[in-house]
């Protein structure tokens, strides 16, 4: 069976206030063309179809168009909701869509009920595990702890229990939207930390022929059978080095697996430039970035006059400027943004406590209170999205 694995479309998202709608249309064209030309048997979309719970109308229309075109090709499509999606909104009409071969899996209760696909070698049981917010699904799975690992383990227990009841040799595929240990994040994924822990071990998915992951925006291979497709477009400059692609998976009759990366169209390359303004304007090596979206980090000791206009004269598509003044080695200072870079909300809170106490960080009890407070805010945000 030939499977096309994609995820994290984030329809409706912009890039530094630049609309990506046409680029997303181009991706959908590319997806449909790939399905047709490469004779794909099933399409898997591993969450974050939309960029927010209430997407703009243009994004909804584009998604609708994509589903109609896939259904017209007669190719089954299985998709799950991600942490950016409103699971209930995305799942509206799922019963009717199923008749057209569009299988939406947005409810936690359906984790152990597969979509049954078939080829000349028999059935493939395809299980959809939507994004499982621990605070919202803990009762569904009756877990002792409200962690990502606990709820995903419980969901996978249902998958394995169902699979054990099926004929010997039934192949299995799981779609999941999660942060799996070993994956490399970027700046454009929304934090899903619970209790200070965001990731789950890949061993949670043991016993499955292929795991199609969504959430991280870089295409990654965690093991032969556990992969992220990544997002089809770059949504932040931290993705400048990403090769945007989809996975074309051939699943053999005995579970044998072959994988091929299918590159996605690039609307415009990204460039991250770093240096003094005059050097960026004069260096001939930067001529290659004239047509790129540019993020420029200026290191001038004093902020130069009118930097955006001067950069735009050479780089018409410059969209972001940051300042990181060169400092003497003994200077302990730095911009606030630099000090916060690569830290999650929990680390920032802990560091703030240490800062105001002259270096003394929170004790264990205080860490627990801060973690619970951050989790409560995330839970409230999730509940608000569900109720909208």
UniProtKB/TrEMBL annotation:
SbcCD cleaves DNA hairpin structures. These structures can inhibit DNA replication and are intermediates in certain DNA recombination reactions. The complex acts as a 3'->5' double strand exonuclease that can open hairpins. It also has a 5' single-strand endonuclease activity. It comes from Streptomyces palmae. SUPFAM superfamilies: Metallo-dependent phosphatases (SSF56300). Keywords: DNA recombination, DNA replication, Endonuclease, Exonuclease, Hydrolase, Nuclease. GO terms for molecular function: 3'-5' exonuclease activity; endonuclease activity. Residues 267-355 form the Nuclease SbcCD subunit D C-terminal domain. Residues 1-218 form the Calcineurin-like phosphoesterase domain. One of its GO terms (biological process) is DNA replication. Gene3D superfamilies: 3.60.21.10. Belongs to the SbcD family. This is Nuclease SbcCD subunit D. CDD domains: MPP_Mre11_N (cd00840). Heterodimer of SbcC and SbcD.
């Amino acid at each position: 069976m030939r499977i096309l694995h994609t995820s994290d479309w984030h329809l409706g998202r912009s890039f530094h206030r630049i609309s990506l709608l046409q680029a997303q249309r181009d991706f959908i064209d590319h997806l449909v063309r790939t399905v047709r030309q490469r004779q794909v048997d099933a399409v898997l979309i591993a969450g974050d179809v939309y960029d927010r719970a209430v997407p703009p109308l243009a994004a909804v229309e584009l998604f609708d168009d994509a589903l109609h075109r896939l259904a017209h090709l007669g190719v089954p499509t299985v998709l799950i909701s991600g942490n950016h999606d409103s699971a209930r909104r995305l799942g509206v009409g799922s019963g009717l869509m199923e008749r057209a071969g569009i299988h939406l899996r947005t409810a936690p209760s359906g984790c152990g009920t597969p979509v049954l696909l078939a080829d000349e070698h028999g059935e493939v049981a395809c299980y959809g595990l939507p994004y499982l917010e621990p605070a919202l699904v803990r009762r569904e799975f009756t877990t002792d702890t409200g962690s990502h690992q606990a709820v995903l383990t419980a969901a996978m227990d249902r998958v394995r229990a169902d699979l054990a009841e099926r004929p010997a040799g039934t192949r299995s595929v799981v779609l999941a939207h999660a942060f799996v240990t070993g994956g490399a994040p970027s700046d454009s994924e929304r934090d899903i930390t619970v209790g200070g822990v965001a990731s789950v071990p890949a061993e949670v998915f043991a016993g499955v022929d292929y795991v199609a992951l969504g959430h991280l925006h870089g295409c990654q291979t965690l093991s032969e059978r556990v992969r992220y497709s990544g997002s089809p477009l770059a949504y932040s400059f931290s993705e400048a080095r990403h090769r945007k692609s989809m996975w074309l998976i051939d699943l053999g009759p005995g579970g044998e697996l072959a994988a091929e990366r299918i590159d996605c169209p690039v609307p415009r390359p990204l460039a991250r430039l770093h240096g003094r303004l005059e050097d960026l304007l004069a260096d001939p090596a930067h001529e290659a970035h004239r047509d790129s979206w540019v993020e420029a980090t200026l290191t001038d000791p004093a902020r130069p006059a009118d930097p955006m206009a001067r950069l735009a004269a050479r780089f018409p598509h410059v969209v972001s400027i940051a300042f990181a003044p060169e400092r003497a080695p003994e200077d302990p200072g730095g911009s606030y943004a630099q000090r916060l870079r690569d830290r999650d909300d929990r680390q920032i809170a802990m560091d703030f406590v240490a800062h105001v106490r002259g270096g003394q960080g929170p004790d264990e009890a205080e860490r627990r209170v801060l973690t619970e407070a951050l989790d409560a805010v995330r839970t409230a945000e999730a509940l608000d999205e569900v109720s909208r």
